[in-house]
Amino acid sequence: MTPRIEINLAKIAHNASKLLQLFGAKGIDIMGVTKVVCGNSMIAEVLIDSGIHMLADSKLENLKKMRDAGIHAQFILLRTPGLSEVESVIRYADISMNTELSTIQCLSATAMKYDTQHQIILMVEMGDLREGIMPADVKGFVRETMMLPGIQIVGIGASFACFGGVMPSEKKMKQLSLLSSIIETEFSLSLPYVSGGNSANYNWFASTESVGNINNLRLGESIYLGCEPLERIPIPGLYTDAFTFVSEVIEAKLKPSKPYGETGQDAFGNHPRFMDKGYMRRGILGVGSQDVLVAGLSPEIDVEILGSSSDHTLLDLKQTHLKVGDEVRFSLNYGALLSAMSSPYVSKEYHGTLSESHEDPRPTEEKSKQKPISKNLDIRTHCGLK
Questions:
Q1: What is the pLDDT of residue 274?
Q2: Going by DSSP bridges, is the β-strand pair 297-299/326-332 parallel, antiparallel, or unpaired?
Q3: What is the mean pLDDT of residues 232-238?
Q4: Does the keyword Isomerase apply (predicted)?
Q5: CA–CA separation, 274 and 192 (whole Å)
Q6: Lowest pLDDT segment from 2-16, 77-91, 100-114, 352-366
Q7: Which of 42, 50, 252, 307 has its CA 20 to 30 A from that of 385?
Q8: Contact 239, 225 (CB under 8 A)
């Protein structure tokens, strides 16, 4: 069935295990981020079996889904909660990340209501300008938070390369590490988690002589796509093809390359421009922007994506012999993976066994030379088209 995303669980397990070993060699533990896979319970189970016991997600619905599926882990809400969500935070998150005192006050009141203790990590603004307490305000923030019953500060953290593209440099990591030392000393407070960032920290980690107090990272993209997010360069020894997007050709015809007639806006309010390349073999896939971020797809055969509407994607078929019913396979970037896993219109198909996860992957450069060919569906025979 198409469209579908094929998920190789063994390759995810391999990547998770390798990254756990890699970062663990310098004393850094990992939170497995499940938001890009929408809290998928099968993938969460793979992370747990691979040795990652902290699962972080930005959606409370996903935390609840994993808990209801019987996943045994420590669950972290990966963002500052809304005031309307505090009761769900107490119920479904063991730890939440916070930047607003008013929200923590509500968490405190709700924790007391349920006679429980809620742990929080305070996020510090380090330049990316997404979420975070300004560094100059952190000490006062800690002082006020420590007065609240039912709340335990267990760490500080920072985000990088999420909004502003700011890199987690050596200087930034030293600043965060120093701030953690100041907090621990001044407030006699132990911080089990000094969370230095995410998959974008790979280059810093690989080059630094000392990680300082940084003892935690939140990894998603490097586990699922095998690369670091700053330049999308593959990480040695990891699989980059654990996910494959597959769609079916629903039309294949010789047509002009440039639309003809009076033109206005397209379906999304754009004014597209086209070069006249004469007639070309054009294909249409039964998938569009409602299903996946088409701009984040890279075909594994020599075709070109010309554009998409809500439910069609147009291809220049070039010299291929694709026909109606053939499948075209694509690799995905992070945005495409997020949209495909979130879409109810994209079926999820699981491959790989966990025993395969102990095999070493082929080098990335070797894999890149091997281009899969399109798969012809059995339905062509069934429908009398062959």
A1: 87
A2: antiparallel
A3: 97
A4: yes
A5: 56
A6: 352-366
A7: 307
A8: no
The pTM of the full predicted model, rounded to 2 decimals, is 0.91
How many residues are present in the chain? 386
**Structure-token pair, residue 58:** 């930005």
E strands, 257-332, are: 279-285, 297-299, 304-308, 313-316, 326-332
- Over residues 365-384, the mean pLDDT reads 42
Copy the structure tokens of residue 315: 């291809």
When the pLDDT of each residue in the chain is averaged and rounded to a whole number, the result is 92
Neighbours of 385 (CB within 10 A): 12
According to DSSP, the residues that pair with 151 across neighbouring strands are 118
Using CA atoms in the order 242, 342, 282, 368, what is the torsion angle rounded to 10 degrees?
-20
**283 close to 254: Cβ distance less than 8 angstroms:** no
CA dihedral 45, 226, 199, 219 (to 10 degrees): 0
User: Would you identify the CATH topology of the domain 243-260+274-382?
Assistant: Lyase, Ornithine Decarboxylase; Chain A, domain 1 (2.40.37)
Just list the catalytic residues. 35
Q: Tell me the CATH number of domain 8-225, given options 2.40.50.140, 3.40.50.970, 3.20.20.10, 3.40.1190.20.
A: 3.20.20.10
Q: Which two tokens stand for residue 36?
A: 């890009």
Banded pLDDT at 266 (limits 50, 70, 90): confident
Could you tell me how far CA 96 lies from the centroid of its own chain?
18
Residue 166 CB coordination number (10 Å): 18
- Is 90 exceeded by the pLDDT of residue 357? no
Q: Which residues contact 23 (CB under 8 A, 6 or more apart)?
A: 29, 30, 205, 217
CA gap 354, 110 in Å, rounded: 41
Residue corresponding to tokens 């920290």: 201
Same CATH topology for 8-225 and 243-260+274-382: the answer is no
pLDDT for 95-143, tens place per residue?
A: 999 999 999 999 999 999 999 999 999 999 999 999 999 999 999 999 9
Q: For residue 374, is pLDDT > 70?
A: no
Lowest pLDDT segment from 69-83, 291-305, 356-370: 356-370
